[in-house]
Design brief:
Strand order of the largest sheet of chain A: 3-2-1-4-5-7-6
CATH class of chain A: Alpha Beta
Largest interface: A-B, 45 and 35 residues
Strand order of the largest sheet of chain B: 13-14-16-17-18-19-20-21
Largest sheet of chain A: 7 strands, mixed
Structural class of chain A: alpha/beta
Distance between the termini of chain A: 55 Å
CATH class of the largest domain in chain B: Alpha Beta
CATH superfamily of chain A: Vaccinia Virus protein VP39
Oligomer: heterodimer
Radius of gyration of chain A: 18 Å
Shape of chain A: globular
Number of domains of chain B: 4
CATH topology of chain A: Rossmann fold
Number of helices of chain B: 24
Largest sheet of chain B: 8 strands, mixed, barrel
Number of strands of chain A: 7
CATH architecture of chain A: 3-Layer(aba) Sandwich
Helix content of chain A: 25-40%
Strand content of chain B: 15-25%
Structural class of chain B: alpha/beta
Number of domains of chain A: 1
Order of helices and strands of chain A: HHHEHEHEHHEHEHHEE
CATH architecture of the largest domain in chain B: Alpha-Beta Barrel
CATH superfamily of the largest domain in chain B: EAL domain
Radius of gyration of chain B: 62 Å
């Protein structure tokens, strides 16, 4: 008898995973040939893709430091992927050993890998859940056990919202998460966009096509569209900007940045 | 490449001193490899990170003895700082080759020769490359192993979950209380569960060897196969029907069948899923309940419910249809039941039912038991006019042979009312009532026969029935009134008293005489309250006359007593009560009792009459001469008046009178007088009659010759006339 339709999908590592492609862009080896093949194909259209990922990691590190400076010591990182290096718990717990980090991902391999990495760390957990069903995240016992939702939380949606199609209503998911967070919570977002990409739209579209082919469509959104995810939040200075321009730690550093780093948008909002 | 003038950093660095030169080397190195690193450190941080590595290289350059292996750690450290890109290594080697000796060559305690420097630099580069490669290889292997292990663990996790789901599904499939089968679109069954196999009789092969579309059953609803074909063509997602199947032993399995179409991930029809609930038992139970609800438990014949259904159907049938109905009631069944007991009575009914059932042989004929000893036989079709007579004859015929019961032979007879007619004219209730009435007519005619319904007889009976049911309300509403007919002394023509005669002023039928309703009132028991009202009313009236007419001697009032009143235990008490309350003396009251009511009367029945007579109330024997006139019995009856029936006086209406009649009346009068009884005659209509009866010695008379019954004030005026 064949597998009934309601049984869970098995793990098919012959299909590329965006988490493992991300790891490959960052020079990691937590990937398989299918992942590398897809990543190389995307890089044929946008050779500087790794720089975008690097800029993402750098922005995230600055945002985590900012949150700790603001007194927010709880982190909810959704779409955390394969933690190659510079992960939220590494950055946060290096500065404040009491910081708590809940990772969420729906890729079972990423979840298994995170479990291995986080073993022995009682202030960091990984929960298997999907951003498209925020109630799964809210009700996940590991999340609710670690995080005190009555106190402010930094919600990180870094390089994840652009993997959710409009049909799945990411706006509603983000709003639902906002509603479970306490006032003073922070929303940290980066999002892919055709704006700021140092190549033609056709070339960028080629890379987008690769993600479509591996059934993980990349949804490029405009600055306005990304800004709408911050409904109910007050934007923190300098607002929604290209990643290198968000609170650089070294003045003038952006002049030395790779042009690819300016693709897409980053921003942080504070819930009133 | 330009040489940076000053690296940012420690303030203690003496310009162009060894420390400053080391920092400048680190700055050059950082600029060279930063673009190819994946670190998330900022440039200053990264440069700071490289500084100790630069110092290690410088120290190695000057170390004595020279040991290049320690430079391997620098390559390892680069990998640890995520400088894993091959460009990072080649850039690093280029920077060491070009700048290490230049910036750090003079930092050591002993100056190195140029050749020594170049040789040491080259060997340092070899060591850095070796360390980097070693570290990168280890890191790559470790990460590959980690991700492979993660993939494996995720997969086994998913498989466990899948396995658990499948195990649950298996359990549901296997242990479900309903039958489940999965078939392809050609109807081949791919898998069935045990319940389904059991439902079909227990042989799996029996089920699997047939395709779904081969399970045809004569009782299939027409839609079943239409739905089936729509489903396998993908035009229907599911259907639900009640469907019978043959089990492997040939018996029938009834199911509630639900079939759903299963599609593949692209939406193409793939399988059909059948869920079957065994409803055989429930269906049998329903049939049995239906049977029990429509059949008589004792005889197994259809009961009233089923009979009425059939009758209504027959009456609702279209043009030209007729129906014939025989309504049969056993004659004297109550007596059999009372004498032999109910158990024997029941056995008799069963035997009768069997015999009657055997009469209904043609299609459209049925025999049913309505209850008790009432049976009906129905025939339908175009020729019921002839058939129903034959049916009635057959019914009486099968009862002709005696029934053997407990060693006795019992003769059972029945009376049948037959109604026949076209469909669509009368309701079932009307037909049944007509049949019932007609049956009673057959019974009154002596039983063991059938009578045909006719509208007039029905109408009479229906009126009778209507009057019976209207009686109690009529008494409450005061629809009864009393007329008085004078009793006259034959010798002088003076008014002796009056007989009270009750009338019913019926709202539809007008004024009705006692012959129309007294028997009904007697039958229902209403005669008791009605009789009491008549007594009260007439005694009150008599008292009224008494008071107004004190000089004309005592005026008597005659009131009729029915047999039921005679048996009523409070007759004496109530009569006394009525007299006392009105103030009328007992001697002014005469109660008339029919001769037939006293036939065979025992002392218990006579006792109240005797008590009344002792009090002074006259008792008249009414209709004397019509019954079995037991003259010898007259002596012991407490009567003081004989009222001769009008049949004796009819022969005297004309002159000359019938001599036999004269002799009889003369004899009776003589007998009566010798027993101290007064004689009253009724029905006096002519002067000749009156004269004749006076000569024969009769005491008093009443009849149209004197006055018809009338309102009380007419008696009053007669009395006044009398007195003049």
């Amino acid at each position: 008898m064949e597998r009934p339709a309601w049984a869970p999908q098995g793990i098919d590592i012959s299909v590329p995973s965006v988490s493992r492609m991300y790891d490959f862009y960052l020079g990691g080896s937590h990937n398989f040939e299918v992942d590398r093949e897809a990543a190389r194909k995307a890089m044929e259209f946008m050779p500087g893709l790794p720089k975008i990922m690097q800029a993402n990691r750098a922005f995230m590190r600055r945002a985590v430091r900012f949150a700790l400076d603001e007194g927010v010591t709880q982190f909810l990182d959704i779409g955390s992927g394969i933690p190659t290096f510079g992960n939220v718990h590494e950055v946060a717990q290096a500065l404040d050993p009491q910081a708590k980090v809940a990772y969420v991902d729906h890729d079972p391999v990423a979840v298994a890998h995170s479990q291995a990495v986080l073993e022995g760390n009682d202030r960091a957990v990984i929960a298997a859940a999907d951003l498209r069903r925020p109630e799964e995240i809210r009700d996940h016992p590991d999340v609710s056990k670690l995080l005190d939702l009555d106190r402010p939380v930094a919600l990180l949606l870094v390089a994840v919202l652009h993997f959710i199609e409009d049909a799945d209503d990411p706006q509603a998911a983000v709003a639902a998460l906002r509603d479970i967070l306490a006032p003073g919570s922070l929303l940290v977002v980066t999002h892919a966009s055709y704006e700021g990409v140092p190549v033609t739209r056709e070339e960028a579209g080629g890379a987008v096509g690769v993600y479509k082919d591996i059934r993980n469509p990349l949804v490029m959104r405009s600055r306005d569209q990304v800004g709408r995810f911050f409904d109910g939040y007050e934007m923190v200075e300098p607002g929604l900007v290209p990643m290198p321009l968000w609170r650089p730690e070294v003045s003038g550093a952006q002049e030395n940045e790779d042009p690819y780093a300016f693709a897409g948008f980053a921003g942080v909002g504070r819930k009133a | 490449m330009s040489i940076p003038a000053q690296a940012s950093g420690a303030p203690d660095a003496e310009p162009d001193g060894p420390e400053d030169r080391l920092r400048r080397f680190a700055t050059i190195w950082s600029r060279a490899i930063f673009p190819s690193t994946a670190t998330s450190m900022t440039r200053p941080e990264f440069e700071q990170h490289l500084l100790p590595l630069a110092r290690a290289l410088s120290d190695t350059l000057h170390a004595r003895p020279f040991d290049p292996a320690s430079a391997g750690a620098v390559g390892t450290a680069l990998v640890a700082a995520h400088c894993t890109d091959p460009d990072a290594l080649s850039s690093t080697l280029g920077v060491v080759d070009s700048y290490l000796v230049l910036y750090c060559g003079s930092n050591g305690p002993v100056a190195l020769s140029t050749e020594d420097s170049r040789s040491r630099s080259a060997r340092i580069q070899h060591a850095v490359a070796g360390g980097f490669s070693q570290a990168l290889r280890e890191r790559t292997l470790a990460e590959q192993e980690a991700i492979a292990r993660s993939a494996l663990s995720a997969r086994s996790h998913a498989e466990q979950a899948l396995h658990a789901t499948e195990a649950r599904f298996r359990a549901v499939f296997k242990d479900a209380a309903i039958g489940i089968g999965i078939a392809d679109l050609d109807g081949n069954l791919l898998e069935i569960n045990d319940t389904l196999t059991r439902m079909f009789g227990g042989l799996e092969n029996h089920v699997l060897s047939h395709r779904l579309n081969e399970w045809v059953h004569p009782e299939d609803t027409p839609q079943v196969w239409k739905y089936y074909n729509e489903l396998v063509r993908g035009e229907r997602e599911h259907y639900r029907v009640e469907k019978p199947y043959y089990r492997n032993d040939g018996t029938v399995l009834w199911t509630n069948l639900t079939v759903s179409l299963l599609r593949d991930s692209d939406g193409r029809p793939e399988y059909q899923l059948a869920l079957m609930e065994d409803t055989t038992e429930r269906r049998l139970l329903n049939l049995r309940l239906r049977y029990e609800a429509t059949h008589d438990a004792l005889t197994g014949l259809p009961n009233r419910t089923l009979f009425l259904e059939r009758l209504e159907k027959a009456l609702a049938a279209g043009d030209g249809s007729r129906f014939g109905l025989c309504y049969l009631d056993l004659d004297g069944f109550k007596a059999i039941n009372d004498s032999l007991g109910h158990a024997s009575g029941d056995r008799l009914l069963v035997e009768v039912a069997d015999r009657l059932q055997s009469c209904a042989t043609a299609p459209g004929e049925m025999v049913a038991r309505l209850g008790g000893d009432e049976f009906v036989a129905l025939t339908t079709g175009p020729d019921t006019a002839a058939e129903v007579d034959e049916l009635a004859c057959r019914l009486l015929g099968v009862l002709a042979a005696p029934v053997r019961l407990d060693g006795r032979e019992l003769t059972v007879r029945g009376s049948i009312g037959v109604v026949e007619g076209p469909a669509g004219e009368r309701s079932a209730a009307e037909v049944l009532r007509s049949a019932d009435i007609t049956m009673y007519r057959a019974k009154s005619a002596g039983g063991n026969r059938f009578e045909l319904a006719d509208a007039e007889a029905d109408a009479r009976a229906i009126t009778r029935h209507g009057l019976t049911t209207a009686l109690p309300a009529a008494l409450e509403r005061g629809e009864f009134f009393i007329e008085y007919q004078p009793l006259v002394h034959l010798d002088d023509g003076s008014v002796h008293g009056a007989e009270a005669l009750v009338r019913w002023c019926h709202p539809q039928h007008g004024v009705l005489g006692p012959d129309r309703f007294i028997a009904l009132a007697e039958h229902t028991g209403l005669i008791v309250p009605l009789g009491r009202w008549v007594l009260e009313e007439s005694v009150r009236q008599a008292n009224f006359w008494q008071e107004r007419h004190t000089d004309g001697g005592p005026l008597r009032i005659n009131v009729n007593l029915s047999p039921a009143q005679l048996h009523h235990p409070r007759l004496v008490a109530e009569t006394v009560d009525v007299l006392e309350r009105s103030g009328l003396e007992a001697g002014a009251l005469c109660l008339e009792v029919t001769e037939s009511a006293l036939i065979g009367a025992d002392e218990d029945l006579l006792k109240p009459l005797r008590q009344l007579a002792d009090m002074g109330v006259d008792i008249a024997l009414d209709d004397f001469g019509t019954g079995y006139s037991n003259l010898a019995n007259l002596r012991r009856l407490p009567v003081s008046v004989l009222k001769l029936d009008r049949s004796f006086t009819q022969g005297m209406q004309h002159h000359p009178a019938d001599p036999v009649d004269l002799k009889i009346v003369e004899g009776i009068v003589s007998l009566a007088h010798s027993l101290d009884l007064a004689v009253t005659v009724e029905g006096v209509e002519t002067r000749a009659q009156a004269e004749q009866l006076r000569q024969l010695g009769c005491d008093t008379a009443q009849g149209w010759y004197y006055a018809r019954p009338g309102a009380p004030d007419r008696i009053h005026s007669l009395l006044l006339a009398d007195a003049v």
